[in-house]
């Protein structure tokens, strides 16, 4: 499944509440950074614990958006990623390897506490692809 993934700088919760109201949407998930299990390699500052780690909103019968707060200031055009959710690792790894050629790895494709694999890569055209293998 492919869904737009919106990147925010400290305003994800506010934006998703607005989108939910505008579309009479159903908020399927809103996890905060403070909900994450402790990880010495990914420390969360106390002031960031209430920021959105992941939000998932159903806008229409078949329309969804996802989003989160990032730790960098996103420029116009960088606030949307293509989120690819797959059930198997092989297709994700194949697409990942092709898209990273001539591009830049934003976050290594690796196991996480919420998925078998997760990572993001900017392709040589400047498009950010976010992969999640469930």
Describe the structure.
The longest helix has 12 residues, at 12-23. 18% of the residues lie in helices and 40% in strands. It folds into two domains: 1-74, Signal recognition particle alu RNA binding heterodimer, srp9/1 (2-Layer Sandwich), CATH 3.30.720.100; 81-134, Signal recognition particle alu RNA binding heterodimer, srp9/1 (2-Layer Sandwich). It has 134 residues and is α+β, with helices and mostly antiparallel strands. Strands 2-3-4-1-5-8-7-6 form an eight-stranded mixed beta sheet, covered by helices on one side. It contains two helices and eight strands; from the N terminus they run βαββββαβββ. The chain has helices at residues 12-23, 89-100, and strands at 2-8, 26-32, 52-58, 64-69, 80-86, 104-110, 117-122, 128-133.
Unreliable stretches (pLDDT < 50, length at least 5) are none
Distance between the termini: 11 Å
| CATH topology annotation of the largest domain | Signal recognition particle alu RNA binding heterodimer, srp9/1
CATH architecture of the largest domain: 2-Layer Sandwich
- Count of helical regions: 2
Let me know the number of strands: 8
CATH class of the largest domain: Alpha Beta
**Total separate domains:** 2
Structural class: alpha+beta
Major beta sheet summary:
8 strands, mixed
Radius of gyration: 15 Å
> Quick check: average pLDDT?
92
Gross morphology: globular
Domain PhnB-like: 2-130
Organism: Neobacillus pocheonensis
InterPro entries: Glyas_Bleomycin-R_OHBP_Dase, PhnB-like
Pfam families: 3-dmu-9_3-mt
